[in-house]
Amino acid sequence: IRDHNDLHTITTPRCPIRDHNNPQVTITTPRCPIGDHNNPQVTITTPRCPIGDHNSMGYANPQQTAAGIHTRLYSRAFIIDDGRRRVVFVTADVGMISQRLRLEVLQALQVKYGDLYSQQNVVLSGTHTHCGPGGYFQYTLFMISSKGFIKASMEPLVDGIVKSIDIAHRNIKPGRIYRSRGELDDSSLNRSPHSYLKNPEEERDRYQWNTDKQVLVLKFTDLDGDGIGMLSWFAVHAVSMNSTNRLVSSDNIGHASYLLEQDKNRGQLPGQGSFVAGFSSSNLGDVSPNTRGPLCMNTGRPCDYLNSSCPVGGTKMCMAFGPGADMFDSTRIIGHNIYRKAKVSTCKPALGHSFAAGTTDGGGDLNFTQGAVEGDPFWDGIRDVLLGEPSNQTQECHQPKPILLSTGEMNWPLPWHPQIVDVQIITIGSVAVVAVPGEMTTMSGRRLREAVRQELQSEGAFRDTEVVIAGLSNVYTHYITTYEEYQVQRYEGASTIYGPHTLSAYLHKYRGLARAIAQDRVSELPLGPQPPFFQENLFNLLPAPTVDRKPENSSFGDVLQQVYPVYRQVRTFTVLSVSQNLARDTTFVTVEIHDNRTDTWEIIHTDASWETRFLWLKGSNQRSNATIEWHIPPSAPSGSYRIRHYGHYKQWAGWQTFITAYQGTSDVFRVSASFYYQ
After folding, report:
1. Is 492 annotated as contributing to ligand binding?
2. SS3 string of 333-366?
3. pTM over 0.70
4. What is the average per-residue pLDDT within 482-505?
5. Among residues 125, 240, 274, 288, which one is catalytic?
6. Is residue 479 part of an annotated ligand binding site?
């Protein structure tokens, strides 16, 4: 589908669509399916399947003959070689892989590659679309249901699968594979729940659902970390397109591949571009995508629970529907759900409306509230005028967050948020310190700790590993919520600046780091892009410091409010002093006790002590005062004390300014258990 400008001719069987008597016609197509020859391991090729009159495979309905195209069918091949063994995994948009199809593919591979690819290391898997060709089986039952053994179906399937393997074989190069997993709700239901309930209760109690909701993703990258492909498994039937459909269609699984490939290969036609997204079937036997469940077509009421039939019309009238308005809409919805879950990507940074609401620990000043999932026309209008409207792509990516500030699209005078983020793990003995560049919520942190622990222990080198999260490390990126928390859009979700899949992206990266540590392959990790070090356009909004002034007939450090002669323990006293706010490499405050034996003063507290408080008040006419408080602890020994204040002031001397040190000292006072002392 993409091999520079070179073209060649291929022959397609039986076109136009519905005329078995018409001769074959010649069309021109690009020579190499998905052929960026620099990208290894993955490729797509278009099987030259007949699109007219053949019987579709899956529903065993002789009336379901093809009469056009809804979507194309593709073969996607992945070759993985760890230096010791090579394996091939192919996911093809067909109902299933027949034994005959596999044998013919293996024979073709034997002719080309000898024993390199054989039944020992080649897996062919069908997506289970029920709207692809039949006729590629050699056993009687299947030949009856698909009108025989049809070479016009078999040959393009074999050619397409082999060609996808050819392209992958020619483009193998070093790369990395990353694993991710998650759960996808609202896209499947058990179509035989009564049967499921017959399984042992203690076995069923181990699982939350009566279908598997897990989505497993393998992401393929080159050594520079650039994504070149993805392979995912999710258990659901590809039957959103029902038995009334007569168009060739890859159904919901194929639509998920289409969406992700279009997303990654921007500006390319379907089937073109270098990124390949393979979605494969899993344990889908009793799993339906028709989430509204089975309904009687003639009444709209639910079908009989046990035998899936209707009072009038029997089983023919019982058909599952949903979630869309029709089968095309349902295919789109389910495919999009699968694609969205498998796509681990982040958005350009943006802050939501609830960010401005603040938290219960400190609310905002304006009329924003937490939990906002809709924008405010007033504030959005002001934003659009002053800063510009967020792009449609960013708004869609951040859903359901209503964007207040689209910081990832704001670059004047400098970018408003980082777009290169550091991730790091260090190990200290059996403790793994995960440096997180932001504020993780409770559940986000739990998921991250568990993910890192699993990877570290997977190779057996780490046992009883303790994983700790060091938050707000290396670079600040606001908050990191779970996908579920993000949907609520409280302050933390609105401040998850990279969108709803931020946590998934971090899990992906930290798993990779932990795996490299466990496998002792840290030296092979790429450093990644370096963050910018801006030299220009940095700005300071604080006014430049001016010279300092003091009242007439006074000096900096003069005590304006002196201490009392005596204080009891557990009391607070205050000293007010003429002050300035400059201090260099020293303390503003000391509390000192007199040592009668040596007649010296010993410092017992500074402004770093819990017991002291230094309050600086900037006054008018460039004058300042300082208040010093000592909260006398019960443990303070009886004796004589004094408070000292240190600072610096700025003054003019001719045309230059100078910084001069000053200090002030309180009167001596006593601390005792009572006011009565000798």
Report:
1. no
2. HHHHHHHHHHCCCCCCCCEEHHHHHEECCEECCC
3. no
4. 92
5. 288
6. yes
